[in-house]
Amino acid sequence: MQLELDYELTQLSQLTFCVLDVETNGSGPEEPSITEIAAVKVRYGHLEDRFHTLMRPKNAIPPRIVALTGIQNHMVEEAPLENEVIPQFAEFVRGTVPVGHNVKFDLRYINAACVRIGMEPLTATPLDTLTLSRRLLLGEVHDFRLGTLSQYISARYRPSHRAMDDVLATVELLHALIERAGQLGATHLEDLRTITTLNSGQLAKKTTLSKTLPHKSGVYLFLDQESKPLYVGKATDLKTRVRSYFSSEQRRKIPVLLHQLSRIDYSVTPTLIEAEALERRLIQGLAPRFNHQHKNQELWWIDTRHRSLLPSSAAKDHLLARPNHLLGPFLSKFSAHSALRAIESLKDSAGEVLLVDRDPEVYQRIYHIFHNKMVSMSNEKEFEKAAVTRDDAKRLLMKLSVTLLAREIRDREALQLLESQSHQRVTIQEGLLDIQGDSCWYQWANRSTDTELFESALVANRVLRGGLNPLTHLSDLSLASEIHRLGELFVARLS
DNA sequence: GCAGCAGGCACATGGCAACA
DNA sequence: TGTTGCCATGTGCCTGCTGC
């Protein structure tokens, strides 16, 4: 593994490539079917060593394949078997970067033979000239067969479906492709592998901008030549996400964006939710011209004491002074209004509106409203209605718990706290955290020793990740079973 | 307030092209 | 002809924006 990482960071001129090719009798790799195998080691553009032998397959070579390769049955009758050839071949390839045209095809046969004779398959990650050609010569040739490509680059060796001829043709193709990639700034093996994911040579130049990005969650920032922000986005995997802009993005604005792109900055965050928060702040602060979402977006809060709605700007002072009396944030005024209506529907026996608070006593009172209803229904033998009421109670209590959990992490103070503490991760329920890969619930979990409550936090987290507003979207059936189970937990705790 | 559309992101899938 | 893997495209789920 370490060896491979070193390869990726080694300059192309210093690598030893092993260009290989196999011919078969047309049978699958599941039985001995290789008829010829050839390889050459190439370093600094020079052939250093070569390996070539015929091999005896299990079955006869059919006429169709004889016509294709020119290898006839009498030529392989005395040839060595795979248990003699494959160990020598594996030793020849050791310490090099395997290369071939559609190389995975060849390696399938070689590795199947390795397994049959009790050897480990070849593990080095190969380089495929077919894939590279598709990227670097797109639009220049009508197909990517080895013969077509050899002709296109005016190679001295022409492929003939004999292993060594094809290997030598592939060597020339490899050198031509490396030269072409070098014009785009590729200097290392890692760069060649990156190019295999691109869709045009022009874009290839700019993918080198993503070189330094890590495979971690965070926020990326596209900048133009004058370092003006073009676009801010978040990603669960920064490197993969940014590279996807060069290979698979279909949005109309993307070509224009990439044309103006000159630099990529990024910031790693421990969790996706923190990335979302940072993304939002950057968009609001920098107003990148290609960001439409979140631009001028106002968040809304509910003032539970006055039963009114507050925009973020007005809620700021309240958040610092009386955070327990604010519920939110909500992504739109409409969502906040819906939530407020839901809250106002909760009235106790005296007709007083029950305001959502962190005080567990409120839950107790809500539960008793439903409990009393259920008892009276049961007394009147309306068991089905009672069951519906019971389920309503569970759902409602879960709604409220999720809302409170949402508030725990989504207000700005909590997010700032998470950012400041992100380097001091608390390990609670280690397995769960690893699976979820999210530290946003650490501070909440840290105050609870209850495993199931901690699980409910993870469910709430999923609700938030899906962008569901807890008070307005919990009719979502996909969450029903989880909510049902967790609602039972809350009801049990309250009773 | 609502409907329709577009944006954003992650993931799934079917067709194509290469090999022998 | 059969197999395989890549990649363009589609899908799902949510969001915000705009016009009525």
From TrEMBL:
PROSITE patterns linked to this entry: GIY_YIG (PS50164)
Keywords from the named record: Exonuclease, Hydrolase, Nuclease
Family annotation (Gene3D superfamilies): GIY-YIG endonuclease, Ribonuclease H-like superfamily/Ribonuclease H
Alphabetical list of InterPro entries matching this protein: GIY-YIG_endonuc (IPR000305), GIY-YIG_endonuc_sf (IPR035901), GIY-YIG_UvrC_Cho (IPR047296), Ribonucl_H (IPR013520), RNaseH-like_sf (IPR012337), RNaseH_sf (IPR036397)
Pfam families named among the record's database cross-references: GIY-YIG, RNase_T
GO CC annotations, alphabetized: cytosol
UniProt domain GIY-YIG: residue ranges: 215-292
Database matches in PANTHER family: DNA POLYMERASE III SUBUNIT EPSILON
Hydrolase listed as a keyword: yes
Gene Ontology BP annotations: DNA replication proofreading; nucleotide-excision repair
Keyword Cell membrane: no
GO molecular function: 3'-5' exonuclease activity; nucleic acid binding
Organism: Ferrithrix thermotolerans DSM 19514
Name of this protein: Exonuclease, DNA polymerase III, epsilon subunit family
